[in-house]
Amino acid sequence: MFRSREPKGQEINDEKTVSQAVASVQDEETIGQQDRLQPAVADAFALREGDENQVDFKTLGWIKAGLIITCEAIALGTLSFPSTFKRLGLAAGLITNCAFIAIAYLGAWIMVDFKLKYPHVLNAADAGREMFGRAGYIICGIAIVAKSVGLAASHVLAGKLAIATFDDNANCAVGWAALISGVSAILSYNRKWSGLLWLSVASLTCIIIACIVTMAGAGTQPADFLVPPGGEPVHWVAFNTSVSLADCIGAITNCVFAYGQAMAVLTFLPEMKKPKDFRKSIALMQVLQLIVYSVVGGVLYTYGGQYTPSPALTMTKRTLAIISYAFALVTIIVSGIVAVNVGAKFFYTELFRNSPMLTSNSWKAQGAWLAIIGTIYTVAFIIAELIPFFNQLLTIVSSWTSSWFVCGFAGMLWLHLYNPRLPENAGNGGWFSTPGRIVMFCISIGLVAMSASSTV
């Protein structure tokens, strides 16, 4: 990208050559700065020749990226997934899980293609601007922030309830919420995704242990442990033919929420060594999700039947529930950090996209990052503690944003990638050039329609 310096001994014979030589020996830092001011043709996280005291953000391999994004995926969604099986039935729950696995993987594949074509895109808001101009940027930006803050508040609330289980609500719950917020903010000090690797591994290990303890406890406790006085014995069904429309919609919404990490895909790609490899990261995540959601959801539903609670960690005796929550607390904190980082990176990249501060190793850059993180968790704490209808609000925000990021957003990206009316797509054949594209066109329209119907 940078022009090389001319040899000092080169003869300069005329004014034109002199001008060219002067241009060729411009300060490389200045050229790097000019390049940063052209985001439509530059990767903002790429280190420029001549940059000093900079952090290399592009350190993610596909295994690291897969484990980190899986940390967000296999978290709170795992604890509520058994209730999806209760509403739909065992077989229907497995089918629904597999269907959303396919949709989420297809959507991530499309996002990778979009990033490869538009390397300046750093997040979903950038993609929205590419498709719909400033209006698309604003709408997608608001969605990113709303979901990140909502998830932060949700994890603060979940952490508070987990700790309250330990002391049986003997101490101030607001204090526990403040503690969770503070610990989460401190652990979010690293600006790079790769810096969250070991926290993510710990999170995944803990949630798996928590699920194993809960399944073992549910399988060994008396069969009538969850049965209320005078209630029917525990039973499970393959397909729940008596499910109400509201319960069916709730179960599907729960699945959408469980795969809502699709919002993070475009935020991960700028830090990948090879963005194309992120498809393998998503495959790793989807395999782990399929196994954990299916096994945990299916096993706990067969033990709890129509009495399966949400979160499922509460379906065992108190001692085992405390042990499960002790492990799950690690996941509640760390998976919340990953979710919040998506929103924090949106603010951070927008503030410093055209500045060396973006990849600077200075205390100012780190301080700005911590200030953003602290602000998000402060707002999340206030929302979780002061809004009495927070759970209902979170359900609305999460279902709206997740349904679009998991389904409709990917459909719109594909339609944009092959829109024959766009100058950059001239010669690519358009939407209907091959049978495969015709199928993808129909799928994309269906995904957009699915999200639009959920919004209405």
Automatic annotation (TrEMBL):
GO molecular function, one term: L-amino acid transmembrane transporter activity
Transmembrane segments: 62-82, 88-112, 132-153, 173-189, 196-218, 281-303, 323-348, 368-390, 396-417, 438-455
Keyword check for Membrane: yes
Signal peptide (from-to): none
Record localization: Membrane
Key words of the record: Membrane, Transmembrane, Transmembrane helix
Pfam families registered for this protein in UniProt: Aa_trans (PF01490)
Cellular component GO terms, alphabetical: membrane
UniProt domain Amino acid transporter transmembrane: residue ranges: 59-453
InterPro entries reported for this sequence: AA_transpt_TM
Primary subcellular site in the record, as a coarse category: membrane
Membrane topology: Multi-pass membrane protein
Tagged with keyword Secreted: no
Family designation: Belongs to the amino acid/polyamine transporter 2 family.
Protein name, UniProt field: Amino acid transporter transmembrane domain-containing protein
